[in-house]
Amino acid sequence: MHDLAEGLAHFQQDVFPAKAELFARLATDHRPRTLFIGCSDARVVPELITQREPGELFVIRTAGNLVPAHPGAVDGADGVCASIEYAVAVLGVADIVVCGHSACGAMTALAEGRDLAELPAVARWLCHAAPAADAARREPGALIRANVAAQLTNLATHPAVARALGAGVLTLHGWVYDIPTGAVERVEPAALAA
Q: What digits encode the pLDDT tens for the residues 91-140?
């Protein structure tokens, strides 16, 4: 916690004053152009990878960068669904990026068929990657790419996303970020049919 307190002090003393005008504008203006859905993994920092300033990305981070298909009923809604709906229908984002990454613990667990009996919430959550796991034949790199494509498919089931795609005002993008090299491989939505 001491490191966090030191970082906060540095932010308040040095970083915030240098960006005070930006934060003053952001206090009343929230118009990110991109929804970035990435993994909760601490090694994958959307703003760092894309070199975006505060306010430029609307970010959802989940284990395995998973996006549940739209539940179809209000009582099945969750924070991920609500955030997607808000980003598209209220903020009007023009792009959604689903970003997987190398050495993903969630995808590795699936690829290796690890026993998750002691992690029941994780096991239930990873069910959202089942189509990718079935398609990838247990090879982690292939599973990571297939998972990004599967999450793009899940995104399209959300009514706000489907409407925006139909109106031609939204584009979906799939990325796989390689931690040791910084390279980004694109996973085309067309790969969904493959």
A: 999 999 999 999 999 998 888 888 999 999 999 999 888 878 776 666 77
Q: Is 39 a catalytic residue?
A: yes
Task: Kindly give the parts of the chain with pLDDT less than 70.
Answer: 72-77, 135-138, 189-194
Point out the catalytic residue in the list 70, 101, 145, 158: 101
Kindly state the tokens that stand for 160: 């706000």
Give the residue ranges of DSSP H helices in 45-187.
Answer: 46-50, 79-85, 105-111, 120-126, 130-136, 140-155, 159-167
Q: What pLDDT is attached to residue 92? A: 98
43 has catalytic annotation: yes
Strand extents, DSSP E, the chain: 34-39, 57-62, 95-101, 171-177, 184-187
